[in-house]
Amino acid sequence: MGYDSVFFSLAPILSRPMNEAEVIEICREAIIVMLKVSGPVLLVGLVVGVLISLVQTITQIQEMTLAFIPKMVCIFAVTIWLFPFMMATLGGFTKSLTDRIVQIGMGG
Length: 108
Known about the structure:
Layout: H1 3-14, H2 20-59, H3 64-105
Helix pairs in contact: 2-3
């Protein structure tokens, strides 16, 4: 009888089901992480798009690439600039989620 068979035979005794409060808390944390990671990039795209549209309206230049290229460059630059923050946020969320899975699996 190996370690795996002992663990799997005790797994129903050691583990406990998640309750509704834990599920809601995990979903709330996931939404906050999503907003932290995607919010700055979306906000930059919005601001650059509005500024370019304002310039296009004032100068009456209606060129599609004039709106697309600067937004693409700014979003790419902000993504590269904030990449360490994004990875740290996602890594922290993943660590807390895996710790919570282990805690639930061990019955605590």
